[in-house]
Design a protein that fits this description.
heterodimer; A: alpha+beta; 6-stranded mixed sheet; B: 252 residues
Amino acid sequence: MRVDCRIEHPVALSASFEVEGFTVLLGASGEGKSLLLRAIAGLLPAQGEPFGGLPPQRRAIGYLPQGHALFPHLNAWQNVAFALRGPRRRDEAIAWLERLGLAELAGRWPAQLSGGQQQRVALARALAHRPQLLLLDEPTSALDPATRDDVLAELIAEVHAAGIPALAVSHDPALAAVADRLVLMHGRRIVQVGAPAEVYARPASGAVARLLGLRNVLRGCLEGAPGAQRLYWPEAGAALPVATALADGAAVDWHIAPEGIEWHDAATAPADSIEANVELWQTSAHGRHAGLRCGAALLWAVAPGAGLPAAVRLRLPPAALRCWPV
Amino acid sequence: MTRPRLTACLAALALLLLAVPFAGLVVATDWRHFGFVRGDGGAVAVSLGLSLVALPPIVALGTPLAWWLARHRVRGQWLVDALLLLALLTPPLAMGLLLATMYGPYGPAGQWLERAGLLLTNSAPAFVMAQFYAALPYYVLAARAAFEGVPRELEQIALTLGCSPARSFFRVSLPLAKLGLAAAVALAWVRALGEFGVVLIVAYYPQGIPVKLWMNLQDIGLSAVYPLLWVFFLVALPLPLVLGLAVRRRLA
């Protein structure tokens, strides 16, 4: 489904993109993502598609705001039955709850449900209204970190099962990673659209790389013409050999993946290596990373092994560096 | 002294001060010669009956206004706020005089209404009007606070689920504001029943309890005031007490 929306108040914002399957609109806080959802839902004056000009009650959307907004005076099944009419509304509501694995919670009050359960009740309530488009505002924000991935997986499975396009807005890269389609917003504009694999492989800018949660996205500027170019990194006071097609003097955002950094002993380090001090170790399910202090900057690198000295030299291979003009 | 104990002591002192006049009433009442004077029964009937008549229009007109005030910000809003405050601020006696000026036999609205067969001086409708003016601003302010406590987002979610704004009001706003509205009704009831100043000017007759208390004091003395006051408490207290208890039970 095509979304083409222009808002004037309270901020000027316009966005145009396609929603397919589970689409995630990724943007930093304050970009107006929630406003965009509210505008599509008809809760904020805006022009454009879909449902242009219709009042919210005539739009076939299912809107899940942050915090889920269950009606506190209604229990779970009554919440789901809110949009249903007729004598069988209770049975229909229970059927929706069963579908989402919540049948045994039908009589519970919203305050007695966990964040994930509330979200699924809100989803059931939205789906029962038979929407053509689901709108989810920061769906991961109210979830417990320990169960977040599972809850998210179930949410997305449900969205796929319902066969309804869904647009989630978020600043959470973890949500971006599970999307069918990613839309990136920066400076109140759509800056990149694509499948997550494409976008992660080729972020269109440093801002996109930051939104995707990539580590080591830094500022610098290029010195010298293509062919004999160096990347000047002011925070570390270093100049790194680099190969780009950008002009001399261009200010850039640059990035190096933590796996791409080479560690060397002080004695055998190549000439183009830079000095660094290990500031902290970060050990997680995803491996062991070192936070390395280079001048005023912090660089993350995958640790090559145990028993490393505190002061090391690093080489940032030109092929591993990616530069975007700012 | 620790802080919680200090709080408890201050609270107890406040309760004690509140209780002093009523302790005085218990002591001052001549229980052996407890009796009523002529017209007391009629005053009770007038107060109770006409307050019950005044309450529905207060709720019916005050609720939409309160909801509108809670949900809309318009230019010149301060004028609306000022009007509500004026209605609260005006000394009851002065409010009675203003009402008499407008709705009295020589007032512009009064003459017009009299031709339509509605006499708003010393009549049951005048009594109801006095109570309406006395209680409405209190009801509106309390009801506005009740509606302001309803998250706007929930009303909007109701819209996205296909409810019309009116349906959303009755299915979401009203049930969620229920407790605060009950408190507002209780407040309106108390204000309407106890109103003296406005009623004194525009509806000396039919006599309600507050005016009858004044008349008993003038004609007979304190001995005729206390029994009627006891009856006043007996008839006036149950509604706000029950509403208040219901609110507290739901909040607990």
